[in-house]
Amino acid sequence: MLGKWVGMLILVSVVVPMAHGVTPSECKNEKNNLVNNCRPVIFGRNPSAGCCQNVRDAHIECVCPYLGPKAAAVIKGIGVTRVVKLIEGCGRSVPRNYKCGSITTPP
Hints:
By secondary structure, the chain is mainly alpha-helical. Helices cover 60% and strands 0% of the residues. It contains six helices and no strands.
């Protein structure tokens, strides 16, 4: 079950903005909002308006630390193409070959 939540974080964080000065408390709230508002996406539903708002507002430094191999497996299960379409449907573009939490993550 934890892998599904981590996968949801990948879904909503692939292309989140980078910001400086976000406190640990703000990051925790952001992560919790993403998980709570975007949970139905894991089960095949489209993202709600609240989920999309969280996708647009999330900071990469808040979400990427929660990503790992289990999350990557969940994304494969959802389907990378579907994930990209969902993120773009929320009003965010997805850079080609973007890797959250890796050395190649753009600033």
